[in-house]
Fold:
Amino acid sequence: MSLFTETPFSLIKLVGIMTAIEEVRILLLADGNVRIRDVLGEFGFCALVDVLHDNNSTYRILFDTGSSTPAIRHNLEVMEENLFSVDVIVLSHGHSDHVGGLPEVLSISEKKIPVICHPNALKPKYLTEPDGTRYNAGIQDYFTRTQLETATAVIESSEPFRLCDGIVTTGEVPRTNDFEKLTGNLTKITTEMNGNEVFDELIDDISIVFQMADDSIVILAGCCHSGIVNTTQHAMKLAATSSVKAIVGGLHLHDASQYRLEKTVDFLSGVSFSTIAPCHCTGLRGRAALMRAFEAQFKDIGVGSLLTFMSD
Structure:
């Protein structure tokens, strides 16, 4: 496997040397769709991931934290789950619907869970409408960098970052095609760099790659602003494999052009995955295109959905 970079020892649970992943379980805590009774939906995304290694050790990740609503606390209670055993929080990027719930999550967990993100994820972000109306699109309405660094350890990396044996963030995803471009409201967002307000290229977009014992990978995306084609190609390169077991999460296809949808389906048709489970910003347009193309592999998911992937 070529999946790993150096990681501070303090972040790695003692899972032995190069233990292999036997099982990945992904439970959706926050999304706009709901799949079970009594839970709350919200405009946001959060997934609780449990990983079982072949030596029976476990690793638990909270991927994104949703918006700042009562949903996650409520949904944890309804599903009889908790965050006490979470080893690390990974932020897919710095938009408010993925980071707004971070203070609440840290409060619920009752411990200092390390937070891993791209360096740009914690920078201010603004959305400016054509009429000049401006909205905060990042962390500003929820916490400051100083407050977060006081509350817990913050690790920033633009490179792939090893969380544990077989688990790595993508780091910045190379954008190598001509059809996965920023569209819609994403073209209206700015950020602060070196004291200047500049267009936000959203290079803080990262996903998580899990490499199973059978050498296949599971890709978990938050919003996939770099595009699911670029992200999948990058993940396969990181893991030195062409075997993709599953693609799960937000794929930001809600406003995709027909050309982009066709090119996305064309690429994914050449990938032998067993499951594609899009949610959040994939939108109805993107979900419909993927369900039509991959009816057998498609999973309709939302809050309460539990996806389990086993090594063959």
Notes: Residues 151 and 170 are 25 Å apart (CA to CA). The chain has one domain: 20-310. Residues 1-17 have pLDDT under 50 and may be disordered.
